[in-house]
């Protein structure tokens, strides 16, 4: 709510300052400059990138507001502990049912491979290969945002040049030279504003999201390998805490399955033998 209020207040102050700078010039030409620097870059990336990449980027930008790395890592940690409990106290069928409710695709794929009997080495190799492909897709989407941080300034400069050409073509009307030049320069101004206050923050936030996913991948990999090696839930839980950084994780349960009574790991190993 505070962020929205700040944005609204800043917009009102900017519009008031714009009216003071604009003077007697026609505000319709200002709207033309805004449309040029806003829609020009969008059309440019639409022409240079596949539709599926643009659609994927739009979905991720919408979901980015709801994603918080700390809570996501905690959720992963608790999910892995619960999966270890199910794997210790039940069997493959119960683990498969629990795995269906996992939202993280890499953790879910790792659980499926554990159930199918893949070796830890195979699991790690497959997960790393899949994640490498996933990361390359993320880099492609980040490249689109990187283009959007540069294009508004270029289109703003184009608008300024076009406006100055119009002014130079009407030098006989001296009264319109000042307002005409101010309108032309507004295109560059809006290009800088859109680039630095809209697209650049989105690009930086998206890059931070990619870094967070990279930092979470070892947590997933070690958790799946712990399941493959049938490590006890407590041992796996405390081992994975090292990937969370400092601080203890407050446990909360995600409804995977009703949790069975946890059996000691040694007893389960003897039954397996």
List the helices and strands and how they pair.
Elements lengths: L1 H21 L4 H22 L2 H14 L4 H21 L2 H8 L5 H11 L4 H49 L8 H52 L4 H8 L24 H8 L1
Helix pairs in contact: 2-7, 2-8, 3-7, 4-8, 4-9, 5-6, 6-7, 6-8, 7-8
Question: Keywords, please?
Answer:
mainly alpha; 0% strand; 273 residues; disordered C terminus; 10 helices
Task: Describe the protein.
The protein is mainly α and 273 residues long. The protein has one domain (24-272). It is 78% helix and 0% strand. The chain has ten helices and no strands. The chain has helices at 2-22, 27-48, 51-64, 69-89, 92-99, 105-115, 120-168, 177-228, 233-240, 265-272. Helix 4 runs parallel beside helix 8 (177-228), helix 6 (105-115) runs antiparallel to helix 7 and helix 7 packs antiparallel against helix 8 (177-228). The protein starts with a helix and ends with a helix. Mean pLDDT is 79; it is low at 246-273.
Q: Please indicate the count of domains.
A: 1
Uncertain segments: 246-273
Q: Total number of helical segments?
A: 10
| Estimated radius of gyration | 27 Å
Question: Could you state the order of secondary-structure elements as H and E?
Answer: HHHHHHHHHH
Beta-strand content bin? under 5%
Helix content: over 70%
User: Quick one: how many beta strands?
Assistant: 0
Mean pLDDT: 79
> Termini, distance in Å?
59 Å
Inertia-based shape? rod-shaped
């Amino acid at each position: 709510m505070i962020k929205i209020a700040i944005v609204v207040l800043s917009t009102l102050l900017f519009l008031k300052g714009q009216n003071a700078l604009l003077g007697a010039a026609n505000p319709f030409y200002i709207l033309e400059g805004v449309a040029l620097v806003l829609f020009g870059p969008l059309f440019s990336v639409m022409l240079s990138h596949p539709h599926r990449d643009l659609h994927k980027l739009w979905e991720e930008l919408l979901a980015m507001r709801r994603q918080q790395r700390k809570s996501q890592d905690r959720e992963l940690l608790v999910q892995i502990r619960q999966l270890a409990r199910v794997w210790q106290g039940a069997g493959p069928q119960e683990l498969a049912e629990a795995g269906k409710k996992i939202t993280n695709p890499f953790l879910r794929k790792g659980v499926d491979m554990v159930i199918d009997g893949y070796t830890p080495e195979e699991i790690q190799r497959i997960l790393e290969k899949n994640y490498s492909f996933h990361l390359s897709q993320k880099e492609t989407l980040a490249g689109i945002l990187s283009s959007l941080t540069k294009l508004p300034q270029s289109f703003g400069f184009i608008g300024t040049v076009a406006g100055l050409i119009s002014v130079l073509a009407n030098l006989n009307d001296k009264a319109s030279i000042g307002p005409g030049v101010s309108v032309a320069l507004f295109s560059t101004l809006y290009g800088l504003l859109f680039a630095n206050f809209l697209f650049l923050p989105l690009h930086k936030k998206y890059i931070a999201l990619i870094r967070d996913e990279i930092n979470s991948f070892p947590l997933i990999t070690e958790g799946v390998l712990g399941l493959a090696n049938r490590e006890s839930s407590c041992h796996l839980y405390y081992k994975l805490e090292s990937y969370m950084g400092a601080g203890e994780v407050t446990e909360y349960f995600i409804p995977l399955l009703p949790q069975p009574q946890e059996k000691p790991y040694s007893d389960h190993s003897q039954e397996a033998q």
